[in-house]
Amino acid sequence: MNYFRTLSQGEIPSRPLWLPFLEILASQVDACALPLLLSDATRWANALPRVAKLVEAQVVAVGFIDELGVEAFASMPEQPWSHPNMNALLDCVGRLAETVRPARELAVALPGPARLCQALGVETDRAGMERIKPGLVKLLEMVCERRPELVVLNELIAPDSPVLSGDYRRLVNTLKNVSVYFGVPLGLRISGYRNGVEAIASLGGLKLEHLMLGELGLDPAVALATLAGSDWRSLGLPLAGAASAAPALPQSGITCYWCSAVQEIDLELARATGQALA
């Protein structure tokens, strides 16, 4: 069953989900440095499913590295897909789309607009959004053409000022329209914030359905209460430590699942987590 498309159709998935970030573990298992893995699409696409199988992850997540894509936009903002970093990612996604199913689903992360603006040293106003819009829209189209189960905007929220501008919202809604055209669910991962409740509340008006939190410490029940009455359909909650110590996920109109807070670095812990959450 396709977990995220099932949710987008207003249905409840028949099984739970764990969405770990495994690129560092994949480089360790493949005995190569992370930059080397990320520069070799074939090696990247071969290593990730092997590690996902080892840790019993139901999703192969690719691109969930905060700095990935930033260099591409900094040097080639109008054609980031031509940069070696993004070219390798697109090639890797294409290979994974042909090999991971039906055993697993595919989730792809792209840098969010605010993260890109910060990296480029521009404001998240109209001028800033217009600068990154052509490249980001085309990059999303190219990823969606490969038909992953989910694309996630990996976003950085200002620690003390989580309010998102109207220009930001308009760009994100444009990106949502692109994903809808291809039939691919679009989600948002947020990190960098200090106050989780304020950060979640700042997301009102975004026409997205899948939210993933990147910072630890927010009680799942509080997060769900903050999202009450919104259009979000799923909430990814970061898990740290052993899954056996994790609280039970609350049941509500928003389906919750566990995800990584950062890249996993302990294979045995990840394996135990996957077994406990399977």
For the structure shown, list the relevant keywords.
278 residues, TIM Barrel, alpha/beta, eight-stranded parallel beta sheet
Could you tell me the number of beta strands? 8
Largest sheet: 8 strands, parallel
* CATH class type: Alpha Beta
Which CATH architecture would you pick? Alpha-Beta Barrel
In N-to-C order, the SSE pattern is HEHHHEHHEHHEHEHEHEEH
Mean pLDDT: 90
Give me the secondary-structure topology.
Blueprint: H1 3-8, E1 18-19, H2 23-29, H3 34-39, H4 41-54, E2 59-62, H5 70-75, H6 84-99, E3 105-111, H7 113-120, H8 126-144, E4 150-156, H9 166-182, E5 186-191, H10 196-201, E6 210-213, H11 220-227, E7 234-239, E8 255-260, H12 267-277
Parallel strand pairs: 1-8, 2-3, 3-4, 4-5, 5-6, 6-7, 7-8
Task: Please explain how this structure is put together.
The chain has a single domain, classed as Alpha-Beta Barrel (TIM Barrel). Helix content is 45%, strand content 15%. The protein has 12 helices and 8 strands. The protein has helices at 3-8, 23-29, 34-39, 41-54, 70-75, 84-99, 113-120, 126-144, 166-182, 196-201, 220-227, 267-277, and strands at 18-19, 59-62, 105-111, 150-156, 186-191, 210-213, 234-239, 255-260. It has an 8-stranded parallel sheet with strand order 1-8-7-6-5-4-3-2. β4 (150-156), α9 (166-182) and β5 form a beta-alpha-beta unit. α2 packs across α4 (41-54). It is globular. The mean pLDDT is 90.
Sum this structure up briefly.
By secondary structure, the protein is of the alpha/beta class.
